[in-house]
Amino acid sequence: MMVDEARTRLSGRSRRRGAKPAIETMASLHGQRIVGNGGSFNPLNPEGITAVHEVACELLAVTGLSEAPASAIQLVEAAGGRVSDAGRLLFPTSLVELAIKGLSRDFTLYGRAENTDLVLAQNKVYVGTGGASPQIFDMQLGRYRESCLSDLYDTARLVDTLDHIHFFSRPIVARDMADVRRLDVNTAYASLMGTQKHVFTSASNSQSVRDIANICYQLAGSKAAFLERPFLTLNVNHAVPPMRFDSDAVEVLIEAVRCGIPVSVNTFGQLGASSPVTIAGCVAQTTAETLAGMVLAWLVDEQAKAVFGPRPMITDLRTGAMAGGCGEQAMLTAAATQMARHYGLPSSTIAGATESKIPDAQSGYEKCLTVSQTVQAGANIVTQACGAQASLMGISFEALVVDNDMLGCILRATNPVDISPQTLSASNIAAVACGAGHFLGEADTYARMHSDFLYPGIADRSVIDVWEAAGSHDIRHVAAVHAKEVLEHHHPRYIDAKCDAILRASLPIELVM
C-alpha cells in the first residue's frame, strides 16, 4: 500500500518541493533514435582470429576464386595477382593485407532527413530491414500473397515512422515488374519515395547501376552532391560459395564503385551446405570470399566506401532448410562480425531471421536471440533485423511494428551505465533509508522517469483487469491496428514533382502515386 500511495503522490510531491529535473539537459528517450553500442561479445580469442585470418589468406592465395570476369582479372593481375592453371583468380597475401590496410574506415552513410545518418565507427550499431522476400502478409486477406511494387512503397513509408529501425534495406521483391531493369529502377525509386532514411537496394547489372546512380544524382542535385553525402548503398553478392565469383555481380560491384555509390560486399554461405560444417571453417571461408570483394572495390578506387558484409547462415542439416533463429546462428554471425572488427572495417551482416510465419512467441525469441548477439558483437549494419518471417520468405507489417519495440529495447540495453557522484548518490540513499523508506516520491525519481527510460510503443504493461477491459488483445493485434493507421495517413512523397517528372521521362518508373 505504501508503494501505491507513493506512486499517486509522486508527481505532486515533486512539484510541492519545487523540484527541478536532476538532468535538465537530457531529453526524454521517447521518440529518440537509439544507436547500439556493441563489441562486447567476442566468441573468437586472439589466437582464433589469427588462425581464421591465416586460413582466409591461404584460401585466397592458393585456392583462389573461379569464374572471375575479365574486369576482375585485369584489376588483380595489375596488382600482382594471377590466374592459376585451373583458371582460378589468386590473390597474393601481400595484396590482401595492403587492401585491408588501405580500405576506407569510419565513413558515414547519410539519410535525407535530420538524425538519420549511419556513422560507421567501430562498435556503433544500426538495425533495419532487408532481404528479398517474395511474399507479404496481407492484413486484409489474413494470409501471404506475392509482393508487388506498391507493397514495397507501403513498407518504406511504414518504416519511415518507426524510430528504432534506422535504415531501409529493400525487404521484398516487386514481383509485378516485367524485367530486371524495371525491377531495379522501381525498387530504388519506391524506396526513396517512401522514406528519408538511408536506403540499401541492389542492381542486376551495370546498366541498372547507372540508372540508380542517375536517380541519386537527380535527387541530390548533382553527382558531386551525392558523392559528398551518399544516401543509397548497393548490396552486392559478388561470390557464390564455395569460392566462386558471380560475374554479373562483380561487374555491378565495379560499376557501383566507379559511380561513387557505397557498396555492401556480401557473402552468403550456408554452413554444412556451401560452407564447411564447422563454425571455424565457415567463418574462414566466408572471410576469404568477402575479402575478395573488398580487394576488388579497393583496386577500383582506394577511396571506395565498401562495407565488409559476411552473412554465413545455418542450415538445419536434418531438412536442408534455413535455421536462422538458432543459437549456432548467433555464434556464427558474431564470429564473422568479429573478423570485420579485427580488420577495423565497417561491417554489415544479417540477424533476425525466424522460421515462424507470424510475429508470435517463436518469432520473438528467435529474433531477439540473434539480433541481441549481433548487436553485442558490434556489427555496424544489421539487416533483416525486423519484419521478416518464414525463413526470410515473407514480410509482415505487424512484425515490423512489433520488432520496432524489440529493437529499441535491445539497443537501449547496450548503452553504458552512467557512473558519477550524482548517479551513485550515497547521501540520497542514506536520507531515504532513514526517512520515507522508498524512492518513488523523490525529485530525482520524477525527473529521471522522463529522461532515463525507453517506454514501449505498443507492448502492454497494464494490469490484468485494464487489459481485459480493453479487449484482451495480444501484441500482434495492437501492431496491426498501428500499421493500418500509419498506412492510412502517412503518404510521403520524398521525391519532389520536378525530379519525379525528369526521372519518369528517362526511366521506366511504374510506381503509381
Gist?
With 513 residues, this protein is of the alpha/beta class. Helices cover 46% and strands 12% of the residues.
What does this structure look like?
The protein is an alpha/beta fold. The protein has 2 domains: 2-30 and 424-449, no CATH class; 100-412, Trimethylamine methyltransferase-like (TIM Barrel, Alpha-Beta Barrel). The chain is 46% helix and 12% strand. The protein contains 19 helices and 20 strands. α10 (279-300) packs parallel to α11 (327-343) and α11 runs parallel beside α12 (361-377). The longest helix is centred in the middle third of the chain and has 22 residues, at 279-300. The radius of gyration is 25 Å and the shape is globular. The protein starts with a helix and ends in a 7-residue tail after the last helix. Residues 1-28 have low confidence and may be disordered.
